[in-house]
Specification:
Blueprint lengths: L1 H21 E4 L3 E7 L2 E6 L2 E4 L5 E8 L3 E11 L5 E12 L2 H6 L4 H17 L4 H6 L1 H16 L4 E12 L2 H74 L3 H16 L6 E2 L5 H13 L14 H4 L11 E2 L1
Helix pairs in contact: 3-5, 7-8
C-alpha cells in the first residue's frame, strides 16, 4: 500500500504543477511572449490565458506602460570646439512586445547609444550660444531620429528632454560676468532714465510755477496801478471840486519839501526854482495877517511896507 500512496502523491503534485503552468494570469498593461520548443508561438495579453504545460514556456514579460529613462551626462563637442555635458531623459513606450523581444537584444542600451550618437551629430552643427538657446529644436530633431530608428524594434519614443547642458567652467565664469555686466548696464540705464524723467518733471514744475508767479505779479501790478490811478483821480477830483487857490497850494508845497529830503540815501538835495513862487505866494498870504512883531523901529514884514521881497534862490547844500 505504501508504494501506491507515494505514486498518488507524486501524481497529485504533477497535476498541481501542470495546472499552475497551464493557467497564466497577465497583469493589465503587460504582455508575455510564449515559445513552444524555443520557437515564438504567440503573445499573451492581459487577463487569464491557457498554455500547454511543459511544452509552452514564457520567454519574456514586457511592460507596455510609458517608461522614463534618464541617461548619464554625455560629453559633446560643439561647432566652436567647446565640450559640453548634456543630460537627456527619454520617454518611450513598447508597442510590439514580440519586436522588442526578438528585434534587439537590449532596447534600453540601444536607445541610449542611439541617443548619444544622434545628439553628437546635432550639437556638432551648432555653436555654444545656439546650443544653449535651442533646446526645443534639439529635442524635436532628436525625437524624430529616435522614433524612426526604434519603430522596427516595437518602441515608440514619445518625448525627449535635455535635462541639463553644462558648458566648461571657464565658459560659465565668462557667461556669468557677461550677464552681470548686462544687468549692471540695464540698471544704470533705468537709473539714468529715472533721473532724466525726474529732472524733466522738476523743470516742468518750475516752469509752471514761474508762469503762475509771473501771472500773479502781473495781475497784482495791474491791480496796484489801477488802484493808484483811481486814488490819483479821486485826489484830483477832490482838488478840483474844492477849487484851491495859489496860496494853499504854495503852503502844501512847502510842507512836502522836508519829506523829499528824508532818508539816509539822499546825499544831494537840489532846491527847485519853483520855490520862489511858492514863497511869494506864502508871503502874500502872511501879509494879510499884518506885521508879525511890534516896535517903534518901523520894522515889519515886506508885505506891510508895500514892497515885494526879491526872490531868493538858495544854493544847494551837499551833506
Amino acid at each position: 500500500m505504501e508504494p501506491i500512496i507515494i505514486v498518488l502523491i507524486i501524481l497529485v503534485v504533477l497535476v498541481f504543477i501542470a495546472l499552475i503552468k497551464t493557467i497564466q494570469v497577465i497583469p493589465q498593461a503587460s504582455a508575455a511572449i510564449v515559445e513552444r520548443f524555443g520557437r515564438y508561438t504567440r503573445t499573451l495579453n492581459a487577463g487569464l490565458n491557457i498554455v500547454v504545460p511543459f511544452i509552452d514556456s514564457i520567454r519574456n514579460r514586457v511592460d507596455l506602460r510609458e517608461q522614463v529613462v534618464p541617461f548619464p551626462p554625455q560629453p559633446v563637442i560643439t561647432q566652436d570646439n567647446l565640450v559640453v555635458n548634456i543630460d537627456t531623459v527619454i520617454y518611450y513606450q513598447v508597442t510590439d512586445a514580440r519586436a522588442a523581444t526578438y528585434e534587439v537584444a537590449s532596447y534600453i542600451q540601444a536607445i541610449e547609444q542611439l541617443t548619444v550618437t544622434t545628439l553628437r551629430n546635432i550639437i556638432g552643427g551648432m555653436d555654444l550660444e545656439r546650443t544653449l538657446t535651442s533646446r526645443e529644436e534639439i529635442n524635436a530633431a532628436l525625437r524624430g531620429v529616435l522614433d524612426e530608428a526604434t519603430g522596427k524594434w516595437g518602441i515608440r519614443v514619445n518625448r525627449v528632454e535635455l535635462k541639463a547642458i553644462e558648458p566648461p567652467t571657464s565658459i560659465q565664469d565668462s557667461m556669468e560676468k557677461q550677464m552681470r555686466a548686462d544687468r549692471d548696464k540695464r540698471a544704470a540705464i533705468l537709473q539714468a532714465e529715472g533721473v532724466r524723467q525726474s529732472e524733466i518733471l522738476r523743470a516742468e514744475g518750475e516752469k509752471q510755477s514761474a508762469i503762475l508767479r509771473a501771472e500773479g505779479e502781473s495781475k497784482a501790478a495791474a491791480l496796484r496801478a489801477e488802484g493808484e490811478a483811481q486814488a490819483i483821480r479821486t485826489v484830483f477830483e477832490s482838488i478840483h471840486a474844492g477849487d484851491p487857490d495859489q496860496k494853499l497850494l504854495s503852503y502844501q508845497y512847502l510842507q512836502m519839501l522836508p519829506k523829499i529830503a528824508e532818508g539816509d540815501a539822499n546825499k544831494l538835495w537840489i532846491v527847485p526854482s519853483e520855490i520862489g513862487d511858492a514863497l511869494k505866494g506864502l508871503g502874500g498870504a502872511m501879509g494879510n495877517f499884518g506885521p508879525l512883531t511890534g516896535g517903534g523901529n518901523g520894522g515889519g514884514s515886506p508885505a506891510a511896507t508895500g514892497k515885494e521881497p526879491a526872490p531868493r534862490r538858495e544854493q544847494p547844500t551837499i551833506d
